[in-house]
Design a protein that fits this description.
The chain has eleven helices and six strands. It is α/β, with parallel strands linked by helices. Helices cover about 45% and strands about 10% of the residues. It is globular.
Amino acid sequence: MSDLPFDAVIFDCDGVLVDSEPITNRILAEMLAELGWPISAEETMRVFLGKAVMDEAALIEARTGKPVTPAWLAQFRHRRNIALERELVEIPGAPAAVRSLHASLHGRIAVASGADRPKVQMQLAMTGMLAYFGERIFSGHDLPRSKPHPDVYLAAAAALQADPARCAVVEDTVTGATAGLAAGATVFGFSPGGPSHDSAQALRGIGVQHIFHDMAQLPAVLAQWRAPRPVHAATP
């Protein structure tokens, strides 16, 4: 048995394990400008952070007057992947944290992402973390609803044969944290600062009670967590 107070840990990928958001949003900004929506990469991150591009098709179409077609989405993913293959790095401390928790939990860790599964697998392979997750990679693209709905976290917990209430979820965006909370998990908000992650204030604003700033500290943060004591009504 693990000494951790959780049966499993489920990670988001982008912004938690890999530093992909600046790269992806730069490519997205370029392609939105080509459609007729001049937008900076910084503004793109404010609008799209934590969200699947295909889920925001209505917004893109409203701003550009052009349809978001399957061909356009495929081209976006192609150009995004070329840039990721050239530039992607891991979040500092993430590989060591993954190795540690994989050992402590006897492999009961998973990734639950709003991104497409091939992208997640590619990024984990590039940063040396894929072997620790194996087939335990779940994408909102493969489910009826993606984040902020809980489906992808519920699917990951079911595959791990873990009660969601006994799972720790690691997220860095309001969209993803909303999904983790809706699944009934304990969400740990990773907020190191900068435009690639939502702020600690924003995460606390939706009910995330546990915020940390250094991924290398995650195993210790989880080990030190204690469930809040239930509040009993006063006897009249």
